[in-house]
Amino acid sequence: MTPPDLCILVGATGAIGRAATVRLAARGQRVLAVARSADDLAALARDVPGVTPCVADIASNEAIATIGGAVDEPVRLAVFAAGLPVRGAADTIDPDLLAVGAGTKLGGLLRLVRAVEPHLVPGSRIVTFAGSLGLEPRATEAAPGAINAGVFNLMRQLSLIYGPRGITTHTISPGPADTPRLRRIAETVAEESGRPFDEVWATYASGNSLGRLPTADEVAWGVTVLLDPEADLLHGSVLYLDAGGHRGIH
């Protein structure tokens, strides 16, 4: 059976989401690109052939019907690449923001799955991104640490539910990547700590044994690898695309 060629990508206008969209389109996949900004989606569709815009807020349950209503065929990949909208250290962050972040990252993942579930077939893949802070926390980032830890757990649960149907689940953990979003975070950390930006930025790369940060395009490569049928054997696992930043053995 010829595998379907429709991919759903939530967070398609972010740095990594856009790079993944470009790579998928280059592999002949059609992409339903989901994001909140109609203007950003229109620009993406103009630049990348094979992209269909879908305006939806994945933090709202309304996204289930919006995305589901835009799909009428089997789905090859359902990719959740939306970024976490909150940050801050555990001793300073507004506790309510943890719920906001979880509603986007954990709730959003489930909304995507619910939207595409009727169109998942053997060989379909559920893919999400979970930052390495969920496994190796930093003192300055309470939300990414706690919420991404939940993402790893939730994806393992989904693997147990969908694996018996031949639908595989995959978590990509890139660690810090050289994106405009990370640079904005580093600027904020520098302001909060009173340290120079260059000093703060250097700490991200110094955490990787390769000595540099991955690019958005390199991380997006991990999505296209999952198009290969052999990637069935990666079901339930985590792909560490972090340039040697992961330290744990598990």
How does this structure look, described?
The relative contact order is 0.14. The model has no long low-confidence stretch (mean pLDDT 90). The protein has a single domain (6-240), classed as NAD(P)-binding Rossmann-like Domain (Rossmann fold), CATH 3.40.50.720. It has helices at residues 15-26, 38-47, 62-69, 95-116, 142-162, 180-193, 197-206, 216-225, and strands at residues 6-10, 30-35, 51-55, 75-80, 120-129, 168-173, 238-240. The protein has 250 residues and is of the alpha/beta class.
Q: What is the CA–CA distance across the termini?
A: 36 Å
CATH superfamily: NAD(P)-binding Rossmann-like Domain
Q: Under the CATH scheme, which class?
A: Alpha Beta
List the domain count as a whole number. Answer: 1
Structural class, from helix and strand content?
Answer: alpha/beta
Strand content: 15-25%
Evaluate the radius of gyration: 18 Å
DSSP strand tally: 7
CATH T-level topology: Rossmann fold
- For the biggest β-sheet, the strand order reads 3-2-1-4-5-6-7
Q: What do the pLDDT scores average to?
A: 90
- In N-to-C order, the SSE pattern is EHEHEHEHEHEHHHE
Largest sheet: 7 strands, parallel
Helix amount: 40-55%
Total count of helical runs of at least 4 residues: 8
How would you summarize this macromolecular structure in one to three sentences?
The chain has 250 residues and is α/β, with parallel strands linked by helices. It contains 8 helices and 7 strands, in the order βαβαβαβαβαβαααβ.
